[in-house]
TrEMBL record:
Pfam families per UniProt: AMP-binding, AMP-binding_C
GO molecular function, one term: ligase activity
Assigned keywords, A-Z: Ligase
This protein's record includes keyword Metal-binding: no
Provenance organism: Salinicola rhizosphaerae
Keyword Iron-sulfur in record: no
Transmembrane segments: none
Record PANTHER family: 2-SUCCINYLBENZOATE--COA LIGASE, CHLOROPLASTIC_PEROXISOMAL, ACYL-COA SYNTHETASE
Domain called AMP-dependent synthetase/ligase: residue spans: 10-372
Name of the protein this chain belongs to: 4-chlorobenzoate--CoA ligase
Amino acid sequence: MFDLGRSFLATVERRPQAIAVTDGDFRRTYAEWLDDIQSVARGLGELGLGHGDHLVVVMQNRWQMATLHWACQFAGIIVTPVNWRSTTQELSYCLHDAEACGVAFDEAGAKAVLACQEAQEIPRISVGDCKDPGGIDFTSLLGQAPDTRGDVICRASPEDISLMLYTSGTSGKPKGVPRSHRAERAAAVAHVAQNLYGHDERTLGVMPLYHTMGVRSLLSMALIDGRFVCVPKFDPEATLAAIERESVTNLYLVPTLYHMLLEHATFAPSRVASVDKIGFAGAAMSAGLMARVEQAFTPSLFVNHYGCSEIYTFTIDQRASDKPGSSGRASLNQRIRVVKVDAESPEETVGPGEEGEIIADLAGDEAFEGYWKRPDADRKALRDGWYFTSDMGYLDEEGDLFVTGRVDDLIITGGENVSPAEIENVLSLHPAVEEVVVAGLPDERWGQVVAAFVKARGEIDEEALDHYCTDAGLARFKRPRRYLFVDEVPKSAVGKVLRRVLLNQQANSLTTN
């Protein structure tokens, strides 16, 4: 099997003059980019980074970050991207945990890097206008001639670690997720197949490269001679401009970003006319948003992906808008099951329509092999060859998976289990509802009551929303007992709704009042 460096070489040999990457006015063909990538790989070696070492990258989605990612693949270095919004304390933890041998950063991560003691003890590579007297500028890594033999650096094997992603750490410290070249390539090949990508595809590189979705977009384009269009930081107008300028053919975004594009004042279907294939992941897309995306983009393919950093894809649905809420069936490289909550064995499966915990087969080609230095996390999540996701869901009579939330998000009211996703889907279809998040609030009588946090786009009150739920056929015990109107719905850096933050804000509000 190819490692990722050889995969890139195959594309260079096949289509050397195809445009590989753009970033505003910057663009490189595959042949030109290979020269840059090899030069950077040699430069990393001169800085002392070798096979199996970790290079931590704290950077937005610029061409330099994509170049570093590929240089590491050729050199056998483990690229370890972290959120560019990380605090000094968070960065310190990741550098120590990964045993990092170098760190690269741009203006977005400069404050944290320059204030971090661990970063001062290893080589530092800065991009842009960062002032770091003790580090080196990224541009100094470019233009280095190969050694006298002229050999291409290609030092990784399929079993070597390609990269290490860090989980978001919503419960406890972030966990490192090391992934091999073999697993990363398998995931990229599956992404190409499941999204029906062809040669000359152009994708938007706006999902962060510290997130599995961003990495998947980067790798998949390189496999098919495609173009990776960098957008350093999501901004609706900059994103729309990049789609127009580069005639982007496919999008792979979290639902929140589609919502923000559609809500932007300058959005028009004509600006995204080149987009033919739509993909989303990272969170469920409400039925209301799905209908709006379908109408605005009129895609030939509308793919829902359900997965995680540990195992890229669990399930896909290539006709997502035909069955809103469904995550489809097992993906190309995977098997899934739904087992009883708190099951100890993967054999404790539940029947159709019965909610439980979703688990995935670790023998799948895309799966990781365990967390970085976290045997406690391995014991919790890895059992008898299966990965226990902590996600709730059920299989319907046709065999399609419906993801209903996290195990911790399940609302238990009056002894009844209620899934937030079902209620969110109903309320999202109301024309006055822009966004909605459903969660459980503590209640002495019921244990928890169903509460809906609503960001409205027009005048609406609780009574009207309650009637709407009734008319939609929502069971009485599932209907929200409280509606809380909010100005904004808090989200993570990659657009995931922060349900716990909403609950904490509500608790703080009650305490203050």
